[in-house]
Amino acid sequence: MALHFEKAEFASRLARLTEKMKEEKLDALLLFAQESMYWLTGYDTFGYCFFQTLIVKSDGTMALITRSADLRQAKHTSILEDVHIWVDRVNADPTLDLKNLLVEMDLLGARIGVEYDTHGMTGRVARLLDAQLTTFGQIVDASYLVSRLRLIKSPTEVAYVERAADLADDALDAAIRLTKPGADEADILAAMQGAIFSGGGDYPANEFIIGSAADALLCRYKAGRRKLDANDQLTLEWAGTYAHYHAAMMRTIVIGEPMQRHRELYNACRETIEAIETVLKPGHTFGDVFDMHARIMDERGLARHRLNACGYSLGARFSPSWMEHQMFHVGNPQAIEPNMSLFVHMIIADSDTGTAMTLGQTYLTTADAPRALSRHPLDFIGL
């Protein structure tokens, strides 16, 4: 089997999950998030674009229902033994197959949690599922149960995050080598992703972000490439990825002579991220991190140019996003604890002057001060 963890670690995760299920009086849990299945069993696929779910009973019994294309995938990449196939056919309703399986597993009338808030659950699937199960038992939203358990990383997970961070650094090195007037964004992007693949890494859970000139103010990927001017700005957001674990970074590189506004915005980013490091530790919350970000940015007159979030938890994720549920935004009560891998980003898009500046890296929290996982300093990058 192509497992990335010892079976003892999977057993520990299942024990933590079933304990939490008993606390919340859940007889069973239907997992639709691929990262939940991966974390719990090692199951590794992009087949979640179709209907599939992992049933977990409070006694630790597990059963997967999926399509035939993923039968061998499940057997080869996971610890799962009980795999059921629903058949592709005209007007297929795999939620009926699921309900029949739940009956076989003695779950009629049970209290069942469902992961609704995930890319593996489409609106159509949710409607079909609710239609089948509304009178079957007590159905509750348990979207964040496994997600919260995954916040704290095990020693093996930390090692994978650290390896991902090394690969992210390699990607930045590759970008810097190529970035100059006349350079093609396509070559820079290819070099960054190539460095990660060459280092034994994986595809990221979402596309790298690359944009220059006016596109440097964007913080999402878009199609299309251009060549850099003699005086330009290049925004990059990417993640090193290893065994699906992500370590994200973000930088705006200035080509040629920086504008004074570039320097001003960089200083704001640097001051803010260093201030955040003082609260990115136990005794504080995710909301405290955002409050620090907002206070400094707003004091500098940048309220209109900043975002309403400044980072999030990272871990093993699948397309279309490497972002986890827990984000740094106003009022988030999630406590910061040791062994969380957290991406902090400063993103300033000054549309008035057409100036972009970003600064971001992944941290591992400890019992005290956070540890930056990048070997690169937070210095201004001008080429």
UniProtKB/TrEMBL annotation:
This is Aminopeptidase P family protein. Keywords: Aminopeptidase, Hydrolase, Protease. Residues 161-366 form the Peptidase M24 domain. It comes from the Bacteria. Coiled coil: none annotated. Its EC number is 3.4.11.9. It is an enzyme of class 3 (hydrolase).
